[in-house]
Amino acid sequence: MANKEALRELQGRLAERLHEVKTQERTLSWLAVESGGHGFLLPLAEAGEIFQPGALLSVPHALPWFLGVANLRGVLAGVVDLAGFLGLRSRLPEGERDQARVVAFNPTLEINGALQVDRLAGLRNQTQLTPEAVDVHAQPGFVGGRYHDAGGRVWQELRLAVLARDERFLRIVKGA
Question: Does residue 174 have a pLDDT over 70?
């Protein structure tokens, strides 16, 4: 019962912050999430609704990081384990599923998809983070800037609009 109340409180605070962010002058703002022991920043304009993980319909012959299809408020969406897709781990351990969340892609991206993350870490904006030097190594197009916060935690931006069109992300079937 306490977990449900804490979740409602967190979602309420996030909703308030999302409203504040939409009414503030335009600055870079992200939903901060943790997955596979790493911090990621999902652009608020590209992230959609947040859900608790629910029942998933598995997809035969899918790659291990494609968890299945979920009904998210009447919309069928493919759910991808973010850490699994990025090669950070094979599966989220059973004991850690209570904090996991599913972040849908914003409907404007025109992809019925969602990312399962290990936990939410709140909202961040560019005034709270310091950009790091640009990495010259080849990275997928969906990887944005790297930032660190006042505590020294590193955050990697993931561009969901680019990820939604990434060929590897869209190929969920083994051997395809």
Answer: yes
Tens of pLDDT, residues 44-89: 999 999 999 989 999 999 999 999 999 999 999 999 999 999 999 8
For the beta carbon of residue 103, count every other beta carbon within 10 angstroms. 24
How does DSSP assign 57-104, residue by residue?
A: B--TTB-TTEEEEEEETTEEEEEEEHHHHTTS-SS--GGGGGG-EEEE
Domain harbouring 94, CATH code: 2.40.50.180
| Residue from 172, 173, 176 nearest 80 by CA | 172
b/e code 48-84 from CB counts within 10 Å (16+ = b) = bebbebeebeeeeebbebbbebbebeeeebbbbbbbb
Question: pLDDT at position 28, please?
Answer: 85
Residue 161 lies in a domain: yes
State the pTM of this model: 0.81
Tokens coding 126: 């560019």
CB 96 within 8 A of CB 89: no
Tell me the residue range of the domain where 61 lies. 2-170
Count the domains in the chain: 1
